[in-house]
Amino acid sequence: MELCSQLNYVRSLSPGKAYFYYLDEDNKMRPLQIDRTHLRAPKSGYSEAFSGNFKSKNIAPQDLSYSNPQFIEECYVPPGVDAIYCAFSLRVRANSLSPEVCVDNEVRDILCNFAALYKELGGYRELAMRYAKNILMATWVWRNRECRNIRVEVKTEDKEWVITDARFLDWYGSWDKDSQLALDEFTDYLSQALSDRISYFNMDIKAKLTVGWGDEVYPSQEFLDVKEAGKPTKQLAKVTVNGSESAALHSQKVGAAIQRIDDWWDENADKPLRVNEYGADKEYVIARRHSSQHRDFYSLISKTESYIESMLETNLIPDDIHFIMAVLTKGGVFSGASKKSKKDE
C-alpha cells in the first residue's frame, strides 16, 4: 500500500489538563500555588571556562566565582498539608477504525479493513491493557510519583477502580490480586472504548499523593521563546482553582505518559517508549525505529495488505501490527509524498 498525499487520524485518547490541589479542614479544594523566587546560581557550565576542544578561555579566576542571578517559578507543598491531589479527565473514542481524512478511497478501504480485522482478533485489548497499566500506575504524574504513597482512582459513569498504592506496581512485574483485578476490568472497559463507535466513554482519574511538608512538586514547565524583562525565565503550567492559580500538568504531558506502551521496538526491549513513528528514545537521544532498519511506522504501514493476508491465515497479530495500530490510535498526519503530475515528469 502506498500512502496517499492526504491522510490523517484523530487521536483516540484525549486527556484534559491535570490540575493539582489539596483539601482544607472543611474538605474544600485549595489551589497548590506557585512560588516566584529570585536566586543566585553559581556559574558551572562548560562554556563559562572553555571553548571548543577544552581550550581554556582567557578569564580571571574571579570571573568563575560570580553568581548568575535567576528569577524562576517553583512549587512546594504548604506546611500542614499531608496529601495533595492531581486529577484529569479522559475521553476515549474509536477513531483508529478509519481515517478522518483520506484522499484515496482504495487506501481508505485497506486501512478500514485492517482495523476491522485487528478488532475482530482482539487486538484492541492489547493496547487497552497497556494504556490501563500506565493510568493505574500513575505514570502520568511523572516525577511526582516519587512520594510516600499514591492512591489512584478511576471513575466512569457506572464503574470505579482503585489502586491503594501505585508505587509498588511495575510495568514488567506481577501485580497483587486486587490491583490485577482492577487492571483486567479497566482493560475490558478501555478495549470497548477503543473499538465501539456508538457509545461514549468518559472517565475522571485522580491520584492522591501522600507528601511531606515543604516537598517539591513538579508541574509542567512552559516553553518560552523569548525572555521578557521582569518575568520569570522558568514558568510553570497553571490552572484556576477557586479563583486562584494552581499548579498543573499539560494535557500533552499526561497523554505522553499514557502513550508509553511501545516495547515492541526490540525483542530484548527493557522499557516501553512513548508511541512515535520513529521510536524516539529521549533518554538515549536515539531513534529506536530508524528508517534504515525499516521498522518505522511508514515502512511498516506500507505492508498493510500483506499483514491483512497474514492475520486472515493465522488469526495471529504480530507485534509490528500492534505498533501500527498504536500509532493510528495516537493520531496524526501520515500523508505520503504527493504524486507528480505528468507535467512534472
Describe it for me?
By secondary structure, the protein is α+β, with helices and mostly antiparallel strands. It has 2 domains: 8-39 and 70-258, no CATH class; 264-327, no CATH class. Helix content is 26%, strand content 25%. The protein has 8 helices and 18 strands. The chain has helices at residues 46-49, 105-120, 123-136, 177-195, 251-258, 297-301, 304-314, 319-330; strands at 7-9, 13-15, 18-23, 29-31, 34-42, 67-75, 83-92, 101-102, 149-155, 160-163, 201-210, 238-241, 244-249, 260-262, 273-274, 280-281, 286-287, 332-333. Strands 2, 3, 4, 7, 9, 10, 11, 12 and 13 form a 9-stranded antiparallel β-sheet that branches. α2 runs parallel beside α7 and α3 (123-136) crosses α4 (177-195). The longest helix is centred in the middle third of the chain and has 19 residues, at 177-195. It starts with 6 loop residues before the first strand and ends in a 12-residue tail after the last strand. It comes from Vibrio plantisponsor. InterPro entries: CRISPR-assoc_prot_Csy3.
Estimated structural class: alpha+beta
Proportion of helical residues: 25-40%
The ordered H/E elements are EEEEEHEEEHHEEHEEEHEEEEHHHE
**Taking all residues together, what is the mean pLDDT?**
93
Low-confidence stretches: 341-345
Count helical runs: 8
Quantity of strands, as a count: 18
Q: Count up the domains.
A: 2
Q: State the major sheet.
A: 9 strands, antiparallel
Alpha-carbon distance between the termini? Answer: 22 Å
Radius of gyration: 24 Å
Shape: globular
- Classify the beta-strand content into a percent band: 25-35%
